[in-house]
Amino acid sequence: QVQLVESGGGLVQAGDSLRLSCAASGRSFSSYGMGWFRQAPGKEREFVARISWIGVSPIYADSVKGRFTISRDNAKNTVYLQMNSLKSEDTAVYYCAAAYQSSSSRERYYDYWGQGTQVTVSS
To answer: pLDDT tens digits for 86-96?
Structure first.
């Protein structure tokens, strides 16, 4: 069992930066690929970024490539999402998710989800 708790969301202006954190509790965090997803009002949840359980080969959605960076610190059981040059269209609830020994852009491969953190970008 893995529990995930996101933090770091908030209200910012376009062009600002935020860093989201996702703290994991439970066993074997380093065995889980981690992903960030987001859901904007009235829209389906979508993939944002993912990183393998050994911290290599990050993958990004085209909409955030070059602006967002995913990283993880297995010693701290935490995954991060650094978000730069934020745009109003980045406004959403951001979720982190864990996939046991897997790394995917598809939600169905993830075993555990956090409760989400709100990011609001004003233009």
So the answer is: 999 999 999 99
